Amino acid sequence: MSHEDWIEYCRKRKKSIATRVFQKYSETPEEAPEYSTESVLDRRWERGRWVYKVKWEGYQEHTWEPVDNLQTDGVYNEHLLHFLQEINGRVDDNKPSPKTSPAV
Predict the structure, then answer these.
(1) Bridge partner list, 39
(2) Strand, coil or helix: what is 81?
(3) What distance in Å separates the CA atoms of residue 78 and residue 6, rounded to the nearest whole number?
(4) Coil, helix or strand for 78?
(5) Could you write out the DSSP letters of every residue in 14-35?
(6) Among 49, 53, 39, 41, CA closest to 96
(7) What is the tens place of the pLDDT at every residue in 34-64?
(8) Residue 3: in which H helix or E strand, if any?
(9) What does the mean pLDDT of the chain come to?
């Protein structure tokens, strides 16, 4: 499967492109393609955890990523921290209650 076919497959399955490409093409982290975030746009509660809508530098496609994909060596991505500061949120926030939380 070519790289382009793999990305298309991930889009159709609504999977994390960065995670899937890393798993498919890499033996070690040093061999993984380098992806840089341009911004974090939104977040939603999915399968018992927060996922974040990420705009990647050089790509038009946005992806929904778990917080684990937005940190390196235990340090959170600066764009994630900026987004959380704007919404007065935290990485470890619990699921919002439907009565008190605005739609995210």
Answers:
(1) 55
(2) helix
(3) 28
(4) helix
(5) T--HHHHHHHHH-SSGGGSPP-
(6) 49
(7) 678 899 999 999 988 899 999 999 888 899 9
(8) helix 3-13
(9) 75
Contact between 93 and 44 (Cβ < 8 Å): no
Q: How confident is the model at residue 15 (pLDDT cuts 50, 70, 90)?
A: very low
Residue type, 94: N
Predicted pLDDT at 74: 77
Average pLDDT over residues 9-28: 53
Paired tokens of 43: 């977040």
Closest Cα to residue 7, out of 22, 80, 42, 40? 22
CA distances from 57 to 37, 39, 47, 74, 88 (A): 6, 8, 27, 22, 25
Element (H, E) at 80: helix 78-86
The three-class DSSP label of residue 52 is strand
Helix, coil or strand: residue 70: helix
Residue scoring higher pLDDT (99 or 80): 80
Q: Which residue has the tokens 């790289």?
A: 3
